[in-house]
Structures are given as C-alpha cells and as structure tokens.
Amino acid sequence: MYRLFTVLFFGILFISCDSDVDAGEFVVGSDNLSVTNKVILIDTATVEVSTINFDSLKTSGQSRILLGNYDDPIFGKVKSDSYFQLTSSAYNLQTTSSDTEGANYVFDSIRMVLVPDKYYYSDTTKVQSISIHRLLQKVKPNTEDDSFYNNSSLNYDAASIGTASFKPMPNRQDTVFVKMDAVFGDALFQKLKKREITTEDEFIEYFKGLVIRSVSENSSCVMGFKTTGSLQLFYSKKVSESGTSLLKEFTIDDVSKQFNRISLDRTGTILKDLPGTTERLSSDLTENKSFIQSGTGLACRIDFPNIKELKYITEKGTIVDAKLIIRPVNNTYSKTYPLADSLSIYVADKLNRIKGTLNSASGYPIYAVLNKAEDEFDENIGYSIPLGTFLYNEMIKQSDSKSALILTIPNIFNGVNRLVLGNQKNAGNKIQLKIYYISY
C-alpha cells in the first residue's frame, strides 16, 4: 500500500486553476476554486484487464440467420448454424371450387430462399457451402425464459435434404436459392393435397423445422440472412394451358422460434485455458492482451482495485472527472477484421454478473467510442470511456464490494465480430486511465 501512495504522490501533475476544468459530465468553474485548491491529474492508478467467457448468449429473437465458419488466427475456429420453425398462412393448396379440381394438382419442385441482410465478417472471397436438414425435435426451448442460446441445439436428421455452394456477396444482396430434395417436397405436397394437414399444429407435428449447417472446409466467412426468407413449394395442374406453377410458401412467422448456434473451438490458441463463467483470465497470462468476440461469449473485464485509496490523498477532495482510453493491439485488426465503431459497457460484480449498463450522471448509457484519427503508428486509435461518475461512486462506496466494467461489441447476440485490447503492460497499446482529482 505504501508503494501505491508513493506512486500516486510522485506521479501527480498540477494543473492551472485560472480556467475552468472540463469534467466531461460536469464543469468545475474557476470561480468556485480558491487559490489553495489544486486539481491533480493522476495517471498511475492500477487498471486490471482480463478476459471472461459468458457461457450462454441469447440468440433467438435476433431476426438474423447467421451462417458460416472461418479459422481465426487468434481466436480459433468459429462456426454458426441456424435452427428455425416454419409455418404458413394457410394449409391448403389453392382454393378450388371442388375436390376433384384439387386432385389434378401435381408437385413440381421445392427450394429454400435465403436473402442476405448485408452482415458479414471475415473473408468473403472463398466459396461457402451449406447443408439443410430436417429437425427431429420441435423448436421448443427447455429453459424457463422460453429462449434459445448460442450453445443451444436440437436433434436433426443426418440426411441432407438440400445443399448449396456459393461465393458470399452480401453487399450485393444476391439471393441464395437452395434446391431441396424432391422426395421430401413431394411428401409434404401430398400431405397438403390429401388434406392430412389442415392446421398449424398438424403441420408442426409432421414438419418440425430445419437446421442450416455450415459445412465448408475452406470457408472464411460468417454472414447474415434475413428471417424473411422462405421455403417455396411449387405445384401445378396436370393439364394446364398456361403451364404456370402455383406457389405455397412457408416462412419464419415467429422469430423467437429461430436461433443461431455459435461455437468457438479455442484448441491450441492463447485462449485455450479460459476458465468458467464466474472467473477471469488475467491479461498478464495472455501476452498482455484481452479479448472480445460477439456470439461466442468472450468479453473484456476491467477492474480498478485501488480506487478507494484515492480518498486518502488529501483530507478533503474528490474525483471531478476521469477518462479511460483502451487501445486495440496493432496487427490484430484489418479490413478483414475491422474495428467496431463503439463498445457497450456494463457494470458487473466479482462473479461477472451484470448489474446494468454504465450510465452517466444523468442516467444515459455510456459507450466506448472509437477514435479513428489516423497517424503514422496508429497511436491515436483507441476507445475513450468517460468514468468520472463511476469512479467517484466506487471511491465513496461504504461497502467492501467493488464493481468492474465489462466491455462487449454491440452485436454481441447476432454477430461474430472480435477485438483484441492491450493492458497497462502492453508495450505498443497500453490502456490509459486519467483521473482528475480536486483537493479543497
């Protein structure tokens, strides 16, 4: 503890009191400062950085079918498959004037239609392959909150009923059409034609849903598709002058019955020994780096172990402002692995349980905003977080409990974006905490 005080006192910088001190969330005016008051800049306080792993993230109800896989040189093997239930507005073929007319319908074909939603991550230059399978279980969660998570799964038939290979072009929104198995399609058609299925319950009992699996060996991309895609069944009359097919569509009517299973195989990586959800992996053990990844549950935890000691600097004093700048590690981001424009910030306890978002004094959520100002050595690139209110409340807290900050990427539930951040010992990309403290 003596060493802490020594560092604090010898590391202080006195700032002129002739002008206002901008405190970010509030301003301490010069009229309120006596000549004996001092505003001290403390930039030597300890900041502990670690990586944690949320064991489950809700991926149902996110309105995105997330498909693909890629090998990340830092994080490991990333993969996403998507499960969903399909329904229709009605379970007849085309309204007919008689049962005999319906008997003239014949099955033509069936296909799955996937529409990109412009989300993608990693390299889109390689061919992506998918395989579609029938579910053997209804899309019904086992959890009390009626949700599915990134580690949820359902049993499915090993036999594929549709495959496709394509080169991702998400920004062009090229629709992907997957030709489905004709035997499967005709069997479904016959159920509708013979009126063996007339209700949604009967349909779901027969056809529980689909899973689309990424089966690419060399894919390098995960991309998103809209949940407005559909299963299209085409049929026509045996004798028809027009020869035009009729269409029956099945869609994802309830997005809570669609979820993505997102996995990360960390074998052989620096993250292979990541502990359980209530623990943390110190950045001192991971080359002075912390890691964030959406979809898989990786997040950065930041602790301020000695913040309560600041109240002993002077007999009377307080924190008037603070700013944390945390920097991405050089050579871990690129056009293939772009930096997020901002980070979400949560307040957590010692067991990584989220207590809420980090808020300003006025009650609005605070985000870590990326400074994109370019310089020769990327020294200016970093995320800035105003922490005046948070650190003040931590300093004056009467209990022994300490709160930490958890940093995630905003698309934590429906993407796979990732980020590598430096700690205080990282030579090129140090985290930096500046605390403005006034004595009076």
Account of the protein in words:
This protein has helices at residues 2-10, 99-102, 182-193, 200-206, 388-396; strands at residues 13-15, 21-22, 27-28, 38-42, 48-53, 65-72, 76-84, 105-114, 116-122, 128-134, 162-166, 176-179, 210-214, 221-225, 230-237, 246-251, 258-265, 281-282, 289-293, 298-303, 317-326, 342-348, 354-357, 367-371, 382-386, 404-408, 418-422, 432-439. The chain is mainly β and 440 residues long. The chain has 2 domains: 2-55 and 276-439, no CATH class; 65-265, no CATH class. Strands 1, 4, 5, 18, 20, 21, 22, 23, 24, 25, 26 and 28 form a 12-stranded antiparallel β-sheet that branches. The longest helix has 12 residues, at 182-193. The chain starts with a helix and ends with a strand. The model is unreliable at 1-33 (pLDDT under 50). Pfam families: DUF4270.
- In terms of DSSP E residues, the strand content is 35-45%
Helix content estimate:
under 10%
Low-confidence runs: 1-33
Coarse shape: elongated
| Rg, Å, rounded | 28 Å
Estimated structural class:
mainly beta
User: What do the pLDDT scores average to?
Assistant: 88
Distance between the termini: 24 Å
Number of helices: 5
The tally of beta strands, per DSSP, is: 28
* Sheet with most strands: 12 strands, antiparallel
Number of domains: 2
